[in-house]
Amino acid sequence: MIPSRLHGLIDYGVAAMLGGLAASSGVPPRVRGLLGAAGAYHTAYSLMTDYEAGLRPRLTMRQHLGLDALGGAALVGAGLAMRDEPGEARALLIGLGLAELAVVALSDDRAASGPRLLATEAPAGYPPYDRPKPVTADVQVVDSLLPGPLGSQLPVRMTVLRLPDGGLLLHSPTRFSSQLAEALARLGPIRHLVAPNIAHWTFLRDWQRAFPEAVTWAAPGLRQRRQVRRSRLRLDHDLGAVAPTAWGGVITLATVPGGLGFHEVALFHEPSRTLVLTDLVLNLEAPRLPALMRPIVRLFGSLAPDGMPPPYLRAVIRWRLRAARQAAERLLALQPDRVIFAHGLWFERDGTAALRHSLRWLLD
Asked: Which of 29, 52, 105, 169 is the most buried (most CB within 10 A)?
């Protein structure tokens, strides 16, 4: 018999496969739509099942298997009924449905009492959340959370730099709260907001509303993004090769380019020898991840202590390999003592060596 834990892994594997087939241009449009709906259906009731892979347990394992059987039968029925579709597409539907029914027949209808595949052994992020935590006299971090896949949560981090004039620079602002704003205001006036790449800008508007006098600086190409244009987000200046004079001469900039308009602007705070990145390093700790996600993150190469960016971002950056490699070498030449980034366990010590290891995919 297939135990419930293995059945849960099969469930999400099947859902991912159905989603992949639904995105394939080699599958007829009607069949793609059906496969996409089947994948969403499968994911939804799997999340609601009281077994190791469930997130919001509402259904028993026996009820889950009944829904599995219903979905499998529907795929078989659709394959038989869609006579105007190519034979290969109909065979695909029938084969998937029969495989689903076979898994149902071989599965145990009792859920085991093992650990939840979507549970974490440690907090998903780095509490306390949404409050400044000192790194050095002029460097603070603010740890927060983002919604992740399958109802999980992912850690995200803002870095706060105090400039020589006493003003604060918020790098990659995280979610806004009045309590966080008040805590930061006690450290100094918030004068600069930095969107360091094309992904880390979604919380800017809330900070702009609270601090309209703060200047917003954007990574190259961010203002050209369709989502940004539609949002009508205010971007005051684009960052260039040299840090703005308003930052007091204590920050060195380095931009890592990529394809599809990707640029990540790194900030090196010279007085503290702290390098501030965003997504160029992803270093997720296994205990803070759901068990179901750990093998995926390990496969992606993003598991601590060997964390790298996920494969899709590495591929985007490799589109401009020579320029990106030169930028990475400039980052290492700065010899940072510590490296802070947006997701995962940042490099508190031996920053240069740790960064070199994390960038091995780009340097070798």
From this structure: 169
